[in-house]
Amino acid sequence: MNISKKHYKWVFFLLCIIFPLFFYGGPAYDSSRLLKELWNLGHFFYFGLFTLLFDNYLRARRYSRFARVCLNICVLLFLGIAIELVQLSIAGRMFSWLDVIRDVSGGSVVLCWRMSFAAVSWKTRFLIVLGTGLMLLNLLPITIVAFDVYSVYKSFPLLSGFESRFELDRWLGDARLSRDDFVAIQGKYSVKIELTTKQYSGVSLHYFPGDWSGWNRLVFNVYNSGVPLELHFRVHDNRHTGDNQQYDNRFNGSILLDNGWNEASVPLVDILNGPRGRQMDLTKIRGFGIFVIRQSESRTIYLDNVYLK
Hints:
By secondary structure, the protein is an alpha+beta fold. The chain has helices spanning 5-18, 33-60, 65-87, 97-115, 122-155, 238-242, 268-272; strands at 158-160, 171-173, 176-180, 190-195, 200-205, 217-224, 229-237, 251-257, 260-267, 285-293, 299-308.
């Protein structure tokens, strides 16, 4: 795994071109999870290429294997942490230790494979296994996401049934979420939602097929184990996301939850006419959420069987 002099400058040029992407560009808030995971993998592959280049330089100057490993790891840590610190001063970016780990592991895979070419021994086999293991660990998140994306489209028009633990990654919000087999209206599991006393507390579904134009209703089931509770819900399209999420630029509804199971069945024609002054784009739905407003105490509800019909 060496770089010829002919290709050395091209790898260096490629690294220089890609480097600004650590600070500019990238997936938007509502981009697909696959795109986000692919973007995250950029750290792994970028620093793999960087290490290939840097270690080639150290090897040409006859550094020992031990010195090469130490220098590479130190430089990977320094650059990884430095990039994350710079990102703190850029709007929309944040420090991520997970990205630093991706940086170091990307370089470590290259080091393991390069060192394993030196001789055939148990050390060689160990380095090959270690390098391959690090690579597979970095590929695991995108593999899980790809599997769940496939499941989403396969089960559509079911949006969430919570039979798979990976479904929770489709939901965001301040309320605590956990799969639970205490009650379920279909299958074995529902999702337990622990609502807080914040002004707005709830969860939102963000990753699902966005073309709802061929369906008539949005249906979801909520189990309330306590006294009646007013639950609010919302649906928005891509234009709402781009318009600073204004209240009147989406569909808003509510339901009074009695004790036990409650079914909300929302005609899509109501969602279509939900935004003020325009119609919802039913081919580009981006989010569905449920929430409560200013509760005096924490409440727990269970959500299940979110689907279109």
